[in-house]
Amino acid sequence: MIELTGDTLTIGELKEVLYGDRKIHIAKNSLTRVEASRAAVDKIALGDESVYGINTGFGKFSNVKIAEENVETLQLNLIRSHACGVGDPFPRIVAKAMMMLRLNALVKGYSGVRVKVVEMLTKLINRNIIPVVPQQGSLGASGDLAPLAHLALVLIGEGRVFNESGDIVPALGVLEKNGIKPITLQAKEGLALINGTQTMTAMAVVNYIEAEQLALDSEWISGMTFESLEGVIDAFLPETHEVRGYPQQTAVAKRMLDWLQGSELTTRQNEKRVQDAYSLRCIPQVHGASWQVLDYVKEKLEIEMNAATDNPLIFDNGKTVISGGNFHGQPIAFAMDFLKIAVAELANISERRVERLVNTQLNEDLPAFLSPEPGLQSGAMIMQYVAASLVSENKTLAHPASVDSIPSSANQEDHVSMGTIGSRHAADIIQNSRRVLTIEAICAMQALEYKGVEKASKKIRQKWNAVNSIVPSLKEDRIFHQDIDNLHDYLKEIKIDFHIQGGNEDAERIIY
């Protein structure tokens, strides 16, 4: 089981819960902190002093004092009124990540919820009772209020959940089936559940996991293209990359040499040409720069995953209660906007390699459009169109969400992050980019068959066999839509059987 402390959760551990169905439990000392924080809230609730979120209204209503007998109604009204998200639901995996991250924040012991609340969240996660959370409606400050309210509904027996078969059903029936009683929210608990960055961060973590895998896949896919075009391997030799000094660039070059080791198709300088086009020669520089962004994003996410992000926060056993702004999603908004650019570039350079594979003026004597009968059959001609369309769409989606802000709550909340929009757009770019790389893989598979698969490196031959088992060789024109979808699904399947050795300083990402 994975132990949640509020301070030590990693992306690797979260990945095991999300994709490996690992179970969780709360550290004992964290439960002690939760109890102490709750005792402080109970004391404040009985006092005369106005403390935001405990015995006051919210947002612009923060100056409205709430009578003691109405505190529970205040929390219930908060959840119901804020659960107004719209649009398609987040994927189950993202909603589960939201629950994990919200729970991890609560067990830090600064939020003032009861142990009962964290125990119920733990049960829901371990039993895969996942809330249905609409994707649209968050400004990214004051936290992800609307989507997290849909999460909180499940705890009170309202809202909807995904059942085991993936259908959307009322939450109450699923709770009853599992012997879980809904809770009645007490002072501050509703606010503690919704005032945070866990929606944008959950989407961001899933984005990071998918983007990391896509970046790894981009290397063997580009390697297959490199062999098909008889690329000049000198560009990957370590001297060039070491003198520039970026460890990620050096690591990509090292992995490319590993993928291509033993190839009879790669060439040396002046053997066929002096140098290749940038889309081949600059793979380490471009892909390496995207890895730099991934490293930046990972650092910010693992900070945010272990952060206390609600408001107010309770310190010194209730002696100090601070209304601050940790719910503001600007760090994650920036990280997601940066990730959008990095992943879009993996697709941009991939599409240029697709063009080189299908263009008879660039493809080293391969058939035009990789067609088995050029003219009568179009081959991969329109696949390049699709790739070009997707990279163009990415350029629109890559516009930073974080540069926008619209005031809310009667100008009390007058600057917001739009981080959740950024994380959603990043997910769209990752999906588009995966499809572009899927198209490159299909084209590279066909091109390598023309050049002679037996001449390829051992590792690339293994990948060729994997691709060819999903997408048959292009013997005649057919409906390629299903081929693209099938290989896309293969690339999308998250693999938890790889690990990173030594961190990104030497970036030895080993795939088994």
UniProtKB/TrEMBL annotation:
Compartment(s) where it occurs, according to its Swiss-Prot or TrEMBL record: Cytoplasm
List the keywords (alphabetical): Cytoplasm, Histidine metabolism, Lyase
Pathway membership of this protein? Amino-acid degradation; L-histidine degradation into L-glutamate; N-formimidoyl-L-glutamate from L-histidine: step 1/3
Output the GO biological process annotations, alphabetical, semicolon-separated. L-histidine catabolic process to glutamate and formamide; L-histidine catabolic process to glutamate and formate
Q: Which GO terms of the cellular component aspect does the record hold?
A: cytoplasm
TM helices/strands, residue ranges = none
Q: How is it modified after translation?
A: Contains an active site 4-methylidene-imidazol-5-one (MIO), which is formed autocatalytically by cyclization and dehydration of residues Ala-Ser-Gly.
Q: Which PANTHER family match?
A: HISTIDINE AMMONIA-LYASE
This protein is called what?
Answer: Histidine ammonia-lyase
Question: Corresponding gene?
Answer: hutH
